[in-house]
């Protein structure tokens, strides 16, 4: 019997810009210019929790979180990284990696629900994506 095909949840598709694939995870940018905000989504059907991945996949996810977090911190020179796998609205397993500054609109609270998303400047987001892709070995 074949394994079900993986696809990105429609809400994540709508709220993000796809920037590429690491060995396990799709890397996405959240469409909100208030914060440099990335998602890693393991391409495994029916994964809701990190424990739904086998141990090798869990280790790969941690490697990818570390790689992307290091790159995001270096590019943004942020004060703090917020890393979380909540999934309260979107059940598909995804990990948020958000670069925070002590003066941002939500500081020191979580970013969810504080402000309406702000559209990215097209040039700025493309420059950010290009820098990130280089740092995480996507091109």
TrEMBL record:
Annotated HIT domain residues: 38-107
An example molecular function term from Gene Ontology annotations: catalytic activity
PROSITE patterns assigned to the protein according to its UniProt record, in alphabetical order: HIT_2
The name this protein goes by in its record: HIT domain-containing protein
Organism of provenance: Bradyrhizobium cosmicum
């Amino acid at each position: 019997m074949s394994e079900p095909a993986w696809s990105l949840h429609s809400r994540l598709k709508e709220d993000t810009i796809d920037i590429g694939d690491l060995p396990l995870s799709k890397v996405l940018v959240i469409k909100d210019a208030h914060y440099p905000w990335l998602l890693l989504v393991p391409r495994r059907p029916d994964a809701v929790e990190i424990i739904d991945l086998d141990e090798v996949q869990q280790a790969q996810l941690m490697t990818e979180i570390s790689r992307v977090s290091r790159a995001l911190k270096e590019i943004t020179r942020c004060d703090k990284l917020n890393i979380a796998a909540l999934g309260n609205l979107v059940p598909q397993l995804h990990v948020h990696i958000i670069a925070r500054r002590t003066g941002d609109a939500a500081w020191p609270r979580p970013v969810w629900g504080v402000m309406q998303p702000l559209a990215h400047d097209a040039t700025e987001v493309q420059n950010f994506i290009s820098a990130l892709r280089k740092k995480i070995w996507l091109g």
